[in-house]
Amino acid sequence: MKRLVLTRHGESVWNKENRFTGWTDVELSELGMQEAAAEGELLLKAGFVFDVCYTSYLKRAIHTTDIILDKMNLAWIPVKKSWRLNERHYGALQGKNKAETAEKYSMAQVQIWRRSYDVPPPALERDDASNPAYDLRYKNLPLSDKPVTESLKDTIERVLPYFKTEIIGALGEGKTVLISAHGNSLRALRMYLDDIPAGEIAKLEIPTGKPFVYEFDDDLKVVNGYYL
């Protein structure tokens, strides 16, 4: 049985402040660190031994990975980072308080921006200092891969090619895999692996600090999926 575990990073400081985060590189909160430690202990107790981990370029996911693997005595395994596992880019909403944004635009509009399949939030201005075009970690990406806003559909279109080429390959080699990422990059994977229709994806919650396990047969077909 081949196994893949998906986990969303622990609570970040902007989760705690109820802000849109997206590609903004914020740290874990104290609770987020505790959630990651508890996950590591849970996975260790359940007998998981990972061969490789995949995470994003954002430190809330990277530090969650570090804490989990440290608790599992697996800090030595390969950790592969890709911008393709970053959170969905929330455009001009990044840094804004969600409740205040709902008061300004309406809760219904904010919910469309947050959970619809193909409606992106308002875009960043190209000269905004937080534009990924000015971020050193993305210097080797073509401009077309540096978003100023994204819908979930856009996020899926960058996550799935990486999953299908890199991560499925590791599973096919018999490796037990951990993906430590973000709410919407993981929602993209859950939508694909569980064959969730676009019209239903808004209902799927991705909690922090709660690992989701997929089990695959030898043909890499999903045979089971459950929260640990």
CATH topology-level fold name of the domain at 2-17 and 27-90 and 150-227: Rossmann fold
Number of strands: 6
Question: In percent, how much strand structure appears in the residues?
Answer: 5-15%
CATH superfamily of the domain at 2-17 and 27-90 and 150-227: Phosphoglycerate mutase-like
Specify the structural class.
alpha/beta
Shape type: globular
Largest sheet: 6 strands, mixed
Write the element-wise H/E pattern from the N-terminal end onward.
EHHEHEHHHEHEE
Distance between the termini: 16 Å
Major sheet: arrangement of strands: 3-2-4-1-5-6
Radius of gyration: 17 Å
Describe this structure in words.
The chain is of the alpha/beta class. It has a domain at 2-17 and 27-90 and 150-227: Phosphoglycerate mutase-like (Rossmann fold, 3-Layer(aba) Sandwich). Helices cover 36% and strands 13% of the residues. It contains 7 helices and 6 strands; from the N terminus they run E-H-H-E-H-E-H-H-H-E-H-E-E. The chain has helices at residues 13-16, 30-45, 59-71, 98-105, 107-115, 152-172, 183-193, and strands at residues 2-8, 52-55, 79-81, 177-181, 212-216, 222-227. Helix 6 (152-172) crosses helix 7. The radius of gyration is 17 Å and the shape is globular. The two termini are 16 Å apart.
